[in-house]
Design goal:
By secondary structure, the chain is of the alpha/beta class. 37% of the residues lie in helices and 13% in strands. The chain folds into 2 domains: 132 residues, Alpha-Beta Complex (Aspartate Aminotransferase, domain 1); 172 residues, Aspartate Aminotransferase, domain 2, CATH 3.40.640. The protein has a 7-stranded mixed β-sheet with strand order 2-8-7-6-5-3-4, with helices on both faces. β3, α4 and β4 form a beta-alpha-beta unit.
């Protein structure tokens, strides 16, 4: 039996999107910037896709700028704001950001920007009062991740963004794990910038977008022909964008039922693993991504077990999970997210993540829980070498 439970890393591209991408490559392959009929046909595909992505957010179509993925969207948000200033200003980010935000923040700090890293509690949540106190006269941007990819915690984004709006500060959220899984309405959500990734909801890899609230100014990262309203030069990857748009439209219709189904499966998994010795749930137990289950191995019986070791054993059993955030899966260093949440270095190497998707069944969950129990029982046995990693 083969079971894929790493949907937060990427999702399989849905057949409808693949079919449309093939059609675009064969029949609508023109450059959308060209004025002739081939270009016009391509431009129709481009703008239809933009409207489909905007529809997923209840946003105007011209607020969507296509990128090569969530990482580029995050960088465009942070650096696009920062590059408007001749002298360094103040930036606020959380201590549990994805590296696509954390690394630009560190770069800005290295060139003189003041960067405040907001602390989180043991569940990974930011305190709105802490944000309010951190804002300074020269604060120009706050960036707080919406759904934390490693531990699943949902931040109180409406409350946090309302604070910055009342103070005249721009607010960005990395919503890569949320878009397509939970409903978002840009008419009521007071954020100025929001990052999206196609591959998280069954669109193709290599395509993403940045929502930019009308009236919000950014500087582009790339110089060139001025495509994407002057903010992302380069000929658009039209087949990917078409698949992205269709996946967004289909997610809009499927989300109400699928979100409930995923929550039920997630809670079923939590319930079945609730009494496993040495396995502690990480993240907020209630305010979390609907498809997301994460745990920390607390080194029971004096045995040190890394998340990576568990991933290897689950892989041998035909089950794909992740050791913490996907971008850190190949490393044995402690998770900075778990460290920020108060876990020690030893415990912070023991994080595992199981994320569910549209192809996950109750039988998959039951089998996975049984296999994980058996693997942990074997690894925690006194006969098991204590240096497993």
């Amino acid at each position: 039996m083969q079971i894929y439970l790493d949907y937060s890393a990427t999702t399989p591209t849905r057949p409808e999107a693949i079919a449309l991408m093939q059609t675009v490559m064969q029949e609508q392959w023109g450059n959308p910037s060209s004025l002739h009929q081939w270009g016009n046909r391509a431009a129709v595909v481009l703008e239809r896709s933009r409207a489909q992505v905007a529809g997923l957010l209840n946003a105007p179509a011209d607020s969507i700028v296509f990128t090569a993925g969530g990482t580029e969207a995050n960088n465009l948000a942070v650096m696009g704001v920062a590059r408007q200033y001749q002298t360094p200003q103040h930036l606020i980010v959380s201590s549990v950001e994805h590296s696509a935000i954390a690394e630009p923040a560190r770069y800005l700090a290295s060139i003189g920007w003041q960067v405040t890293w907001l602390p989180v509690d043991h569940t990974g949540r930011v305190d709105p009062d802490a944000l309010a106190q951190a804002i300074r006269p020269n604060t120009v941007l706050v960036s707080i991740i919406y759904g934390q990819s490693e531990v699943g915690t949902l931040q109180p984004i409406p409350d946090l963004a309302a604070i910055t709006r009342s103070r005249g500060v721009l607010f960005h959220t990395d919503a890569v794990q949320v878009v397509g899984r939970l409903p978002l309405d840009m008419q009521t959500l007071p954020v100025d910038l929001l990052s999206i990734s196609s591959q998280k909801f069954y669109g193709p890899q290599g395509s993403g977008a940045l929502y930019i609230r009308p009236g919000t100014d950014l500087m582009p990262l790339l110089g060139g022909g001025g495509q994407e309203m002057g903010l992302r030069s380069g000929t658009q990857a039209l087949p990917n964008i078409a698949g992205f748009g269709l996946a967004a439209e289909l997610a809009t219709g499927e989300m109400p039922c699928e979100t409930i189904r995923l929550i039920q499966l997630r809670d079923r998994l939590f319930h079945q693993l609730a009494d496993v010795p040495g396995l502690e749930v990480t993240g907020d137990p209630r305010d979390r991504l609907p498809h997301h289950a994460s745990f920390c191995l607390t080194h029971a019986n004096g045995v040190d077990i890394t998340g990576k070791a568990v991933v290897r054993q689950m892989t041998l059993a035909g089950i794909g999970i992740s050791a913490g955030a996907s971008c850190r899966s190949g490393k044995l260093s402690p998770s900075p997210v778990l460290q920020a949440m108060g876990y020690g270095d030893r415990a912070a190497t023991g994080g595992i993540r199981l994320t569910l998707g549209k192809h996950t069944t109750a039988a998959d969950v039951d089998w996975t829980a049984m296999v994980l129990r058996q693997i942990l029982d074997r690894m925690l046995s006194p006969l098991t070498p204590a240096h497993m990693s």
